[in-house]
Structure formats: structure tokens, C-alpha cells
Automatic annotation (TrEMBL):
It comes from Paenibacillus silvae. The keyword Zinc does not apply. Keywords: Sigma factor, Transcription, Transcription regulation. Residues 15-81 form the RNA polymerase sigma-70 region domain. Belongs to the sigma-70 factor family. ECF subfamily. Residues 105-156 form the RNA polymerase sigma factor 70 region 4 type domain. This is RNA polymerase sigma factor SigV. It holds the Pfam family Sigma70_r2.
Length: 170
């Protein structure tokens, strides 16, 4: 039982340190505050119920974020509909958080990207995850993550330059 208690303490610490990141990651999938909060709550429950299955405590954070990703994807599949992000909700970060998605052109362009690119860009640049961590969280090959990240950035660049051209026409 001692090992279980130690794992639970490590999990509580991981949840506490990453609560805002967990929320933002869930939100980046479902784009709805209440649904994102429900997903985070569900993820915490799932994590506690399956903590004994964790083999390596060094990968606790990646394991926790992988649960967020799979739970979010499960939620989307159940909903069978994509909820559009309201522009007023673009800055929906928990009030105590430091980083806000304030650049509306960037947020709009990010929103237009396919999920497989958008999630990578959010994890890499907004959540400051290393590419290796992203590959582990998404359960993807490292080279696949690198390629998609590069492609996503290219698409983002194209979207942003098209928006700039539209602005100049006005």
C-alpha cells in the first residue's frame, strides 16, 4: 500500500502543477468551457483509478496528458459534432494564468487548422512541451510529430499571410 500512496501523492502533485495546462489542452479539443472542465474532472478520476498501471513514474506527466487527449477525443466522438469557437472565448484561460491567446489573427488562423496540426502547435508553443513529450502524449512517432509540426506551421503561415492580404484590401 505504501507504493500506492507514493504514486497518489505524485499524481496529486502532477495534477496541481498542470491544472491550467490540462484545462487548456482539453479546451483546445472541445472548445467549450463546461465540456473542458468536465473532461478534466473525468481525467482526474481516470488517472486515480488507473494509477497502479503506471510502470514508470518518470513519465507520469506524459501519461496524464495522454489521458487528457484520449478522453477529449472520446468526448468528441460521442458528440459527433464540432463546436465552433466563439471569438470572445479565444482568451479563455484560467484567470490566474499568465499566457493568453490575445492575438486574434493567430487564434483565428490556428482555429482554421486541422486538429492534427493545431494540437501540435498548441502543445509545442503555448504549452511549451518538447517534441519528445508531444510524441509521447499523442502516442505518435517522433518523426511524424516533427513533420506535422512543420506542415502545421507552414499552413499557419499561409493562413496568416492570406489574412494580412485581406486586411490590406479593406
Amino acid at each position: 500500500m505504501k507504493v500506492g500512496r507514493k504514486l497518489e501523492k505524485l499524481l496529486i502533485q502532477c495534477i496541481t502543477e498542470n491544472q491550467e495546462r490540462a484545462y487548456r489542452l482539453a479546451y483546445s479539443y472541445v472548445r467549450n468551457k463546461e465540456d473542458a472542465l468536465d473532461i478534466v474532472q473525468d481525467v482526474i478520476h481516470k488517472a486515480f483509478m488507473s494509477i497502479e498501471n503506471l510502470k514508470n513514474t518518470g513519465s507520469l506527466k506524459s501519461w496524464f496528458f495522454r489521458i487528457i487527449v484520449t478522453t477529449s477525443l472520446d468526448f468528441i466522438r460521442k458528440q459527433k459534432k464540432v463546436q465552433l469557437m466563439d471569438e470572445e472565448k479565444l482568451e479563455v484561460v484560467l484567470p490566474s494564468s499568465q499566457d493568453h491567446y490575445t492575438d486574434l489573427d493567430l487564434a483565428r488562423s490556428l482555429n482554421e487548422l486541422p486538429d492534427k496540426y493545431r494540437i501540435l502547435i498548441i502543445l509545442r508553443f503555448f504549452e511549451d512541451m518538447k517534441i519528445e513529450e508531444i510524441a509521447e502524449v499523442l502516442n505518435e512517432n517522433l518523426n511524424t510529430v516533427k513533420t506535422r509540426l512543420y506542415q502545421g506551421l507552414q499552413k499557419l503561415r499561409v493562413n496568416m499571410s492570406e489574412e494580412d492580404q485581406e486586411e490590406e484590401k479593406r
